[in-house]
Design a protein that fits this description.
single chain; about 80 residues; 5 strands; about 15% helix
Length: about 80
């Protein structure tokens, strides 16, 4: 399973396991979790990187409309997994 490492605050980093990924409107979205196996909380990250960036720039999706729309796409991609 692929992993994404991001800087969260004060120089600290966190690793997330990528459950699924998709592109909507030219933006890459990643469904991630902190747990490699079992029931864990899933979050959606979007890649805000520009072509010239040497490192990826990720942001948690917090906008309710965007979260519902992208969440519905991930739910369809992961039919056998319960997403709440």
């Amino acid at each position: 399973m692929d992993k994404i490492k991001i800087e969260i605050e004060d120089g600290q980093t966190a690793e997330f396991f990528v459950l699924e990924e998709t592109t909507v409107g030219g933006i890459d979205y990643f469904l991630v979790t902190e747990e490699e196996e079992g029931d864990g909380e899933a979050m959606i990250l979007k890649d805000l990187s520009k072509k010239d960036d040497t490192e990826a720039v990720f942001e948690f999706v917090e906008d309710e409309t965007e979260l519902k729309a992208v969440g519905a796409i991930f739910a369809g991609l992961m039919e056998n997994t319960d997403l709440v």
